[in-house]
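I hope you will forgive my troubling you with a question about protein structure. The record follows directly beneath this note:
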Amino acid sequence: MTDNKTSLNLSAGLASVTVAVILVALKLWALGTTSALSVAASLADSALDLMMSLGGLMAILYAARPADEDHAFGHTSVEDLAALAQSVFILISGAVIGWSAVGRLLSDAPVPLAGQTGGIVVMVISILLTVALVLWQRRVARRTGSKVVAADSLHYMSDLMPSVGAIAALWISRHFGIGQVDSVVALAAAAMLIIGALRIGKGAWDALMDRRADPAVIEGIAAIARDWPGVRGFHDLKTRMAGSRIFVNIHIELDGDQPLRDAHAIGAGLRRRIIETYPQCDVIVHKDVAHEP
């Protein structure tokens, strides 16, 4: 199962890098042809996506390494570090694009746009490639729980509206000669980038700070323990996130007079059921003697 998840994550990472390279090349040509700031915003986003996709691919490879003496709980926290770095890059990109857009809107000499037809064709191609990639990434993220793949999918999803906006800006410029629309679209794209960056960064920061798992997951684990045969009660259910992994510690209360073999079987069975229900979990079950009523 782990090898299959790693293969899926790697396929998503390689697809992301390939699409990013194609998009950067196409948008560089479109920017040189049109001089549109909305295209520049989309190009900057794709260039950052390329850097982050490369970083994400390396993070996926590193996170797949097994636990060792120095990293007894594995290497999955690198996913959170990569996602945090991605959010910083996106935040800076959004700020720069927004500043440029405001500068153009306030300028007395607007920058003329040209070659709108070629730019529109490039943006349509980029949208089709991005949609195909996002669909695959979301499928992989659902099956593996990888934060890197999920974050990468969000980046590319955020590309869609700026790309659509760039098409609208180029079309309006071509047919009505209103070049200011380009800056308005770029400003909206910058706002989307900043909001997305803050959301990704918060998720990565929470994981690095050992934030608990989703309350629904915690309640699901509690329900399994509560109804497990032989368990008289449980306490100190604790969880923490690290990349796509959830680390679970739970103390179960058992009959102190039963054989050790039986107590072990109860704990092992509970652990297996939790992992079967939540494959992303790494579970440690502590066995305590239940207090007599």
User: Anything to note?
Assistant: The beta strands are 233-242, 245-254, 281-289. The chain has two domains: 2-208, 215-289. The domain at 215-289 is CATH 3.30.70.1350 (Alpha-Beta Plaits).
